[in-house]
Structure formats: structure tokens, C-alpha cells
């Protein structure tokens, strides 16, 4: 019997958070559980300690897709998850290209921790790099699917025995999706960092929202840590002071917009 509904998610620009919060509240409502216990591990300070999940917990877990996989800089943290006997619903958000093996990989992390996968989902979120690729998603239509998923998930959890499921993706998991330059050569954007223009008002919001704690608080034009290109700083800046000027990164962004901005990929869930 489920005693606690928990969220467990990372969300730099808020799309994962939107789906996970709605789904968990919907499931809790149908299970007559009055409150959802929230674990948001987006900021570095929230990854200092791993919550412990146990039998009686239903964990609604979410990460964005990065290069077709679970963000690799989170793996060290995620590999310490503990949850013997808990139920889990891995969910990934992706920017309208593809989620490749992210969902199966996310599921395997929880299986290794002794948790039982009872559902899963792949939803679309506005692409981190862009304001036009999957713009505004997840939107109302996606949220209706989240609600439908939540209701069915709660029903499944009320019927014994609760069967586990297999999530889609290849096993063994494929290598990370590789962006390319205009000549088709693989590019490496790992070292690319955002720049700051003269509009900056030094409000420090960029430093506060950076999930890697990579922006220097004293001088926000300096990126002293690892940048994962989540674009939280660029999208949250109130005056448009953050930008990227790396040629290969900008080419990749435009290519994604040209290839995928016109297609509406459906939200999918598995039970
Ligand atoms: C470095 C990086 C790589 C990404 N790779 C993919 C990808 O392979 N496929 C895709 O469809 N979206 C990809 N995205 C887009 C995000 O998965 C998507 O925008 C997601 O909704 C962001 O979640 P958030 O708002 O919770 O941060 C990538 C984003 C980043 C930052």
C-alpha cells in the first residue's frame, strides 16, 4: 500500500518540474494522499544529501534528456539513490528531437537501487537551447495527458499485485547523441560557456539558478565551473544579458530548430 508520494527531479528551465509536480499531485489526489513530499535536486546545495526511499513510497522521478541520455553530470549523485522496495515512475523531458535511451537508462538507475518501475513517461519541453523549438511545451494538451497518466497510474497502484514494466530504449544503452558542424563532423560543445553583455544589472539571478554553481557570484561574467548548456542563466536573465557565441553551438541550435521546430512530437507514457 502506498503511504507517501514523492517527487525526485532535476529541472534547469522548469519543464521537468512542471510535469513532475502535476503528475505527482494528480496521483496523490487519486490515491487520497493529502500531500506530496518534494525532492528537487536542481541546485548544488540540494545534492549534498540523498533522500532515502522505502517500501510504501511512490517516487515520481524526472530529468531532462541530454544528448539522448540522462545528464551524465548527475550520474554520480543518482548512483547513490537508495529505495529498496519503493515504487518509481521515471519520466524524461526532451526538446522535440528524441529521448533515445534516456528513459531506459533512468529506469536502470532505480532498478539498481532495488526500486520497482510501475510506469514511465517521455514528455516534450521547450528545448533548453531555443525559444522556438517546442516553444511553450509542455502545454495544456500535454498536461491533459499528464492528468490521464496520473489517474491510470493511481488505479494501477490500487490494484494488487502491482506489476513492474520495461521501459523503451536499447539495452545495452547507446552512446551519447553527437551534434555535428555544417560539414557533418562531430563537434564537442562541452567547453562552451555563456557570455555576458553590457545589459547585465548584476542582480546575480544567473548565479543563483545555475544548477552547477558554475557562475562566479562576485563577478557574474565569469563562468568558473562546468557549464552544461542548460541555459537557465540565459532564459531566466531579466534583461537578456546572457548569450552564447560559439559558432558550432549556434549552428547546432539552428539545425535543431530547422529540423524539429515544425513537428509536434506526442507525449508518451507507459504503464
Ligand atoms: C546539453 C543539452 C542536451 C540536450 N539534448 C537533447 C536531446 O538529445 N534530445 C532532445 O530532444 N532534447 C535535448 N535537450 C533539451 C532538453 O531535454 C529539454 O529542453 C528539456 O525540456 C529541458 O528540461 P528542463 O526545463 O527541466 O531543464 C538537451 C538540452 C541540453 C541542455
UniProtKB/TrEMBL annotation:
**Keywords per UniProt:** Iron, Iron-sulfur, Metal-binding
4Fe-4S ferredoxin-type domain segment(s): 192-220, 227-247
- List residues of the Flavodoxin-like domain: 5-154
Fetch the InterPro entries from UniProt: 4Fe4S_Fe-S-bd, 4Fe4S_Fe_S_CS, EFR1-like, Flavodoxin/NO_synth, Flavoprotein-like_sf
List the PROSITE patterns hit by this protein, alphabetically. Answer: 4FE4S_FER_1 (PS00198), 4FE4S_FER_2 (PS51379), FLAVODOXIN_LIKE (PS50902)
UniProt cross-references to Pfam families, sorted A to Z: Fer4
What's this protein's name? EFR1 family ferrodoxin
Organism (species): Filifactor villosus
Q: What is the lineage of its organism?
A: Bacteria, Bacillati, Bacillota, Clostridia, Peptostreptococcales
Amino acid at each position: 500500500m502506498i503511504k507517501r508520494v514523492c517527487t525526485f527531479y532535476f529541472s534547469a528551465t522548469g519543464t521537468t518540474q512542471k510535469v513532475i509536480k502535476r503528475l505527482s499531485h494528480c496521483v496523490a489526489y487519486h490515491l487520497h494522499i493529502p500531500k506530496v513530499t518534494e525532492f528537487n535536486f536542481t541546485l548544488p546545495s540540494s545534492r549534498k544529501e540523498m533522500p532515502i526511499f522505502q517500501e510504501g513510497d511512490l517516487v515520481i522521478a524526472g530529468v531532462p534528456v541530454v544528448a539522448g541520455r540522462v545528464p551524465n553530470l548527475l550520474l554520480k549523485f543518482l548512483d547513490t539513490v537508495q529505495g529498496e522496495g519503493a515504487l518509481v515512475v521515471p519520466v524524461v523531458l526532451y526538446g522535440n528531437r528524441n529521448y533515445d535511451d534516456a528513459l531506459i537508462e533512468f529506469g536502470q538507475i532505480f532498478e539498481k537501487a532495488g526500486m520497482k518501475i510501475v510506469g514511465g513517461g517521455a514528455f516534450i519541453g521547450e528545448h533548453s537551447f531555443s525559444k522556438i523549438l517546442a516553444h511553450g511545451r509542455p502545454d495544456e494538451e500535454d498536461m491533459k495527458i499528464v492528468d490521464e497518466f496520473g489517474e491510470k497510474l493511481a488505479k494501477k497502484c490500487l490494484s494488487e499485485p502491482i506489476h513492474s514494466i520495461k521501459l523503451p530504449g536499447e539495452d545495452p544503452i547507446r552512446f551519447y547523441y553527437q551534434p555535428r558542424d555544417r560539414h557533418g563532423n562531430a563537434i564537442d560543445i562541452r567547453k562552451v560557456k555563456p557570455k555576458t553583455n553590457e545589459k547585465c544589472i548584476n542582480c546575480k539571478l544567473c548565479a543563483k539558478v545555475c544548477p552547477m554553481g558554475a557562475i562566479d557570484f562576485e563577478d557574474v561574467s565569469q563562468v568558473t565551473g562546468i557549464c552544461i548548456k542548460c541555459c537557465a542563466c540565459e532564459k531566466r536573465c531579466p534583461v537578456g544579458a546572457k548569450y552564447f557565441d560559439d559558432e558550432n553551438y549556434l549552428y547546432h541550435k539552428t539545425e535543431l530548430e530547422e529540423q524539429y521546430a515544425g513537428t509536434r512530437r506526442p507525449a508518451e507514457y507507459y504503464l
